[in-house]
TrEMBL record:
The keyword Ribonucleoprotein does not apply. This is C-type lectin domain-containing protein. Gene3D superfamilies: Mannose-Binding Protein A, subunit A. It comes from Hemibagrus wyckioides. Residues 51-154 form the C-type lectin domain.
């Protein structure tokens, strides 16, 4: 059985924005709410307050979610578009080993969308990744994890 939580993005003033993205369990992503075969539903929420990377991740975990893992160009562009020129934390860090970027589920980064010259580990203090709301570019940047940013939580629901 397949259930929808929400069919489109919702913006209500300063309230949280909820985005539901549909992805297949194959090697490609689909953003078609009508497609019901072999679908995994990903519920993403962009928070409208600012917190550090650790605080952001803690907030996501309290929601039984985690910081977003970006799996495709389409998903990356979709999230960047929802941010509308703002910046937000994503679930990517190289805290364990400098230059070795891993997602919050401990999988290695295989496809990256770094902005030109990034990641640059400016002042040896940039170990967390943000996405910038510029959908037509490569919008990732490394930042100091103690900076305060918006963040994107992601919760996956498997559908039969």
């Amino acid at each position: 059985m397949f259930h929808l939580c929400m069919e489109e993005a919702k913006r209500d003033g300063d309230e949280d924005m909820t985005v539901v993205i549909y992805t297949t369990t194959d090697d490609f992503d689909v953003y078609d709410p009508e497609a019901k075969d072999n679908i995994t539903k990903t519920h993403q929420q962009i928070q409208h307050t600012e917190k550090t990377w650790n605080e952001s991740r803690q907030d996501c975990r309290q929601r039984e979610a985690d910081l977003v893992i970006i799996n495709s160009t389409e998903e990356q562009k979709f999230i960047a578009k929802q941010l509308d020129w703002r910046r937000a934390w994503i679930g990517l860090t190289d805290r364990d080993t400098e230059g070795v970027w891993k997602w919050v589920d401990n999988t290695p980064l295989t496809t990256a969308y770094w902005d030109e010259g990034q990641p640059n580990n400016e002042h040896n203090q940039e170990d967390c990744a943000e996405i910038m709301g510029f959908p037509e570019t490569k919008p990732w940047n490394d930042r100091n994890c103690s900076d305060s940013k918006l963040w994107v939580c992601e919760k996956c629901f498997c559908c039969e």
